[in-house]
């Protein structure tokens, strides 16, 4: 009788940085099990961008001419409804003004409440009604703009621009001027809005702009190579739904996952290390590494070595994919090196 096969692909963007200034930090977690796992695994190339890696897992390849359609996909996750229109993310953000530039602080930093989002969206929709523009905010920190046609612009994701001067990352393309002007008009609309006056009184960052990105229509996806997808982020969840799968939330740890799974091919996304890296929070990044070492690496190493898990792939995105099989766990000649040797 053939034994059921259990495989896991663990997508962990930001697990190995890049965070070069922290490579030799004295208080950085050593993560010996992660180092052993990576050292024994076969290292392969992969997609070097976290957003593109999510799409690639479902057979959608990035094109230099257009955005990956993150808006349409994440809206599918947030609303549960498919729409064949052209969707653009217009996420609520704070832009920190400098002498001659502005720094983007994103939706996680702005963190509007549902009530604040509703008020600002209503103000936008009233102001731009004659232009035929209307926002949706199914989630307070993710806003969507439906367009009748491709606006002909190329954008950059929030995470690619966080804590950076926004000027080089503003919309580009034949109609870029219109969209840059629209951003200025939105900033003026939000500047003195009662929501922002109240946030200022409470010492909160104002929501003084939106960030356009991820434009496109729902993509065709490849037949799923996974039986189950476990993820909290909206893009992965939307792609799973597009592939005909109903995503689940990630479990707390590997032992919980193993207890619920005896067979099948699984994609599991852990995103805390990615948030720590892009938000520039080294303590959070360290904490994410330590929890992945404790809650995932040691139990998964034992599961592969013991034969319960036939194949484990850890996709670190920026530093490639690491594939571990049972035979590789006994390859003692592949020497482990300290984890900072992988960073």
Euclidean distance between termini CA atoms: 43 Å
Q: Count of helical segments? A: 13
**Sheet with the most strands: spatial strand order:** 2-13-12-1-11-10
- Residues in helix, %: 25-40%
Number of DSSP strands?
13
Strand portion: 15-25%
| Radius of gyration computed on alpha carbons | 22 Å
Taken from the alpha-carbon principal axes, the silhouette is globular
Please indicate the count of domains: 2
H/E element string?
EHEHHEEHHEEEHEHHEEHHEHHEEH
Structural class call reads alpha+beta
Mean pLDDT: 92
Unreliable stretches covering 5 or more consecutive residues: none
The biggest beta sheet reads: 6 strands, mixed
What do you see in this structure?
The chain is an alpha+beta fold and about 350 residues long. The protein has helices at about 30-40, 50-55, 70-80, 105-110, 115-125, 160, 175-190, 195-200, 235-240, 255-260, 270-280, 280-305, 325-330; strands at about 5-10, 40-45, 85-95, 100-105, 135-140, 140-145, 155, 170-175, 210-215, 230, 265-270, 310-315, 320-325. Helix 1 (about 30-40) packs across helix 12, helix 3 packs across helix 9 (about 235-240) and helix 11 runs antiparallel to helix 12 (about 280-305). The longest helix has 25 residues, at about 280-305. The model has no long low-confidence stretch (mean pLDDT about 90).
